[in-house]
User: What shape does this take?
Amino acid sequence: MFGRFITLLLYLTCLRAAHPIVIDGLFDDWQEVPVTITDPEGDYNYDDWAELKITNDDDFIFFKISLHSEETLLQNWNNFYLYIDADKDSLTGHPFRGMGAELAWHFGYRTGQYFEQDGIIDLWQNDITLRQAPTVTSTEFEIAIARGSFVLSDPDSIAVIFSSFYDTGDYMPDSWGGVVYQLDTTVVGPAAPILLEKTGTRLVTYNTLYTGILEPDRQPKFQRIIQALDPDIIALQEHSEWNEIGDIISSWFPEDTWYQGYTFRDLVVLSKYPIINQANLISSERTMCALLQTDDPINPYLLILNSHFSCCDNDDDRQEQVDELVQVLREWRLNDNGPFDLPEGTPMFHVGDFNFVGYREQIETVTAGNIQDEGNYGNDFPLDWDGTAITDLFSRQTHKRMAYTWRSDGSSFNPGKLDYVLYTDSNLSILNHFVLNTLAMPDSVLNEWELEAEDTNEASDHLPRIVDFMVTDLGITGELDLPQQYILSHPYPNPFNPQVMIPITLAREAHIQLRIYDIHGRLVISIADDVLPAGKKLFSWDGSQYPSGVYIVRCQAGHVMQTEKIILLK
Assistant: This one.
């Protein structure tokens, strides 16, 4: 057995490597991490382990686990155990399959134990800074545990065993003594900071925890946060009082005009753009919508859906709510059976506190339009205008490789992604996006933006999500066949300095308006506004007198429009 231990240790020492990992429920960043151990399929009938990867950075030890068996939920519904021997001494800690574990963690119970010489200490997730993703059902998960926690005391190497049912289930590895991982001392640089500067139209979605903006103790924290973010559109959840919020936000931005929607249940939308229509969308009143009239040159309308779906163990309720929402959107789009007229091709964001902490199917419903209860809610319906799924935006914190949006250190539940930003990528482009966590920001950045370290931690148990965007395409509407009218081809070179060429092909004579706008929707120059004959046309624009940045080429013929994004780099 000792020889086997040494062989395995030497093998893993050769493969060990420090890697920057983002705990976000995406796994592309694990591709270069070597497989630590594989487990055969079929050696256990229930929770059947498949593969384990281990890596580290300067602050965390990371684990990626996968299953051969069906999806499960890591923070519930399982009997998964993790045992870590931090000193590789089988005579210390909890004896388990040839190792002495200082840490035993039960994922399904969300509790653990630290075995020390003087006794046993019960643990919650925050005691070891345990982070994991995703928060919904899956067959693979990523886990982070702080190296500097008192349980591990920043060891040089560890021995690890994953068990699917204490001492009667599947083990990874099957061999006694665990799998040994030697931590790499290669310095992993900090997360590249995401800048707070606004790069387009800015939308902020924020669960304010029991109407927190109105509370005197918390209001100054919200004020600093929202003033620093400088949003154009705000979607709030857990805000049940509407008659004061508009005045409060307006007082924070005295030079701007703010429009306030009504509060539906605990949902409200505020905007620098006029709110021309708003409505509750589903019977539970857990989703509202607001139609904004923007100054965007491509499309003057923007639809905001704001949701706060049922919490916690209410999977059936959440699924019913998202099924009904897709039904409403389908009937609205296909049959004009909605709360108000919705112009075809209207860009849409769906944001809010979704509380997705159970079955993954709820995500598939709100993105791809996959209705689970078709008997009551009808057929599936793709939610983007181009017949595809709308996009689920994954954002990380500005100065930390974490993507959770909810955290409660006094809870047994792990921090997780509860707040979502979905969007129609057929007509919206994302310029910047992030989660604001002031606890993770350096003092220099906090001072620059007049924030305090405890602001987001004390304002709410949720963190705000921020997205900067621009409208990129109106979509094809009506009966016009665009290729028969004109084609705006890709400008070149792109990026350019200082001249860009803009090709247009006309199938027949047409009145063409060709204009350049800046990122804020302001007209820069009109290049063409005339009736032009059929054929290929080549226009140019010299940007030498304009600053570097993103610009929009808009070509319009009647009610049909095409756009292209160009970038001027000097």
